[in-house]
Amino acid sequence: MKSIDDFDVAGKRVLVRTDFNVPLAELDGRQTITDDGRIRAALPTVKALIDRGAVVIVVAHLGRPKGVVDPKLSLAPVAARLGELLESPVVFAGENPDDAITSAQPGEVVVLENIRFDARETSKDQSERAALASDLARYADLFVSDGFGVVHREQASVTDVARLLPHAAGYLVNSEASVFSKVLEDPDRPYVVVLGGSKVSDKLGVIGNLLTSVDRLLIGGGMAFTFLAALGHDVGDSLLEADQIPSVLGFLDTAAERGIEIVIPVDVVVADEFAETARHKVVSADRIEAGWRGLDIGPQTVELFASKLADAKTIVWNGPMGVFEMAPFAAGTLGVAQAIASRDALTVVGGGDSAAAIRLLGINESDFTHISTGGGASLEFLEGRTLPGLAVLEDSE
Ligand code: ADP
Ligand code: MG
């Protein structure tokens, strides 16, 4: 994979695919960005390119407009915020970019309108995508892929355009890809993965692939209840995917054969309804009564998990330990996140909600080696799949 440092970009027009899919809220009738983390994540690449005298043309998407123009999903507010953060000129091209691009000077940035307003972007028909990609390729001399959140997608502005132009990985894609490659191919051991989140069915592929590499797997979150049920415990009204019990039993067998330790909760916080104001209590994980549902791991489990992390040299965390969005059920996620953050190890956080939990719970982001900006992409990486948006960058051009 080439880096932007391998190209002389002075006076060149560089098309940069970023992930600017930021959360928006309507404030006084205007679309306002509530978290600009994804814009900040692209700054090193954009800055380097403009500092070296390139014209930067940003292509990105926002939401799921499904191929039609939706003014609420315009990238105009994103272009404005990018200009503020860069403290340098950013032109929003709207839907007629030709003029903006021809008149742009070296060191300037042009942001194209939401690429998903064009149905060809996400078309399943390769020739439709290729047509859009060649429109985009005409604007530029070089393509830079820096939207890690989209590299698992086969889309015109992610993969097809890379096939038409000389291409490089931006700094963000480069650092994400090298961290995940390290973890996947050559983790320092003990290698411990903490998995949580809502459903075990979302993460079957991840668990299956991890059982070829990990030393220890700690299971919390909603998925823990399918593990507890597979071991014959009643889980009351907790999140349970009964149809996944055979897969879970298969995982437990494979782990036992390979000497991989799977650790499940010993106590849980149960509530009498799914609500912030619910009555709640801590019970032993094998004593969840009917009418109660587990919404967090309990304090003994936090201690157990922390002890299983103590000697780790590599830690990957994906998925909150409980319903951290509600204060009474956030302690498990907070405790485990703090335990991970305090380790002197390579610590990687993947998963959109896990990253959100770190910010919401006020944990210092710099205490982790790496917090991924790509939820879906990081999961597919951990599943051991080939990400099409990275594979195209590996082809020489
Ligand atoms: P990530 O985005 O980090 O991969 P997921 O999307 O898999 O994580 O899951 C996040 C969601 O899981 C959170 O919204 C959280 O409230 C929910 N969750 C965690 N534990 C439970 C539980 N015990 N019961 C129901 N939902 C849970
Ligand atoms: Mg999620």
Task: Walk me through what this model shows.
The chain is an alpha/beta fold and 397 residues long. It has 14 helices and 17 strands. It has helices at residues 37-51, 76-86, 97-103, 126-137, 156-160, 171-185, 204-210, 224-230, 245-258, 299-309, 331-341, 352-360, 375-382, 388-394, and strands at residues 13-17, 24-27, 30-33, 55-59, 90-94, 109-112, 142-145, 167-169, 191-195, 216-219, 261-263, 267-271, 280-284, 293-297, 314-318, 346-350, 370-371. The strands form 4 sheets. Strands 5-6-4-1-7-8 form a 6-stranded parallel β-sheet, sandwiched between helices. The protein has a 6-stranded parallel β-sheet with strand order 11-10-9-15-16-17, sandwiched between helices. The protein has a 3-stranded antiparallel β-sheet with strand order 13-12-14. The longest helix is centred in the N-terminal third of the chain and has 15 residues, at 37-51. Adenosine-5'-diphosphate binds next to strand 14 and helix 12.
Number of helices: 14
Task: Give the DSSP E fraction (strand runs of 2 or more residues).
Answer: 15-25%
Kindly provide the radius of gyration, computed on alpha-carbon positions and rounded to a whole number of angstroms: 23 Å
Overall mean pLDDT stands at 95
Strand order of the largest sheet: 5-6-4-1-7-8
Largest sheet: 6 strands, parallel
N- and C-termini, Cα separation: 10 Å
Shape: elongated
Structural class: alpha/beta
Ions, cofactors and other ligands present here are: adenosine-5'-diphosphate, magnesium ion
Number of strands: 17
